[in-house]
Amino acid sequence: MASQLRLRSALALVTGAGSGIGRAVCERLACEGASVAACDLDAAAARETVRLLGSPESEEGAPGGKHAVFQADVSEARAVGRLLEQVQARFSRPPSVVVSCAGITRDEFLLHMSEEDWDRVVAVNLKGIFLVTQAAAQALVASGRHGSIINISSIIGKVGNLGQTNYAASKAGVIGLTQTVAKELGRHGIRCNSVLPGFIATPMTQKVPQKVIDKVTGMIPMGHMGSPEDVANVVAFLASEDSGYITGASVEVTGGLFM
After folding, report:
1. Which fold has domain 11-253?
2. Could you tell me if 192 and 247 are in contact, meaning their C-beta atoms sit under 8 angstroms apart?
3. The Ketoreductase domain covers which part of the protein (predicted)?
């Protein structure tokens, strides 16, 4: 593993922190020394993540402990604004590391996809990242602090996938959003990068039929699905000063899968 405690002075806000990649990111950033504000729509899941970090805290945003639990629907502007206010009130500073992991799927072929399923996926996966990125950037610029914003996209946003027009569009949007934010915020000392996971063993991929998983695994040069920790390792690098001259990048974590 890379050198430890690269983030010992950092405060990291992680959305989608209750499971999968989000939980692994929280664990890795905490191991690097960061204080973690773990946010999820499911507060109980976020609380379990914080428990795994070694914090006894059990109440949302309560004082005490190095890490804290927050609950928010990232697709709601007021909720995101309130989240940033709560994080700053709890830690007396804005987060210098922001990792947007919250995401959902509602898969269906184009000919049968409902407008509701399209809207909900775009609202969480793209609008949610816009809202969190904007609110965090505003807080950082107002405080004069530098920071690193890391948005979790997907290789599907680059190459597409059957039955996922909504998901692919939302994740492609995250890549474009990230590249533009990097151009706008570089002069403020704020970096913004995206991570494009391939097929990672998470609760989301557990919904995929086994025959599909077997087919996709056969297309991965490394011969197996990735783990949430594989993604978290890249996030930790992008959060640290080891990547201090990297912004606007899209880092693929796919085992070589290009579909």
Report:
1. Rossmann fold (3.40.50)
2. yes
3. 10-203
Catalytic residue among 70, 167, 199, 237: 167
Tokens 């993604």, residue located: 231
State what percent of residues in the chain have pLDDT above 70: 94
What is the per-residue pLDDT across 26-49, written as a single tens digit (0 to 9) for each? 999 999 999 999 999 999 999 999
* All structural domains of the chain with their residue ranges: 11-253
Residue 29, SS3? helix
Residue 245 is among the residues annotated as catalytic for this protein = no
Q: What is the pLDDT of residue 4?
A: 64
d(CA 225, CA 1): 20
What is the dihedral sign for C-alpha 154, 81, 39, 89?
Answer: positive
Q: Tell me how long the chain is.
A: 259
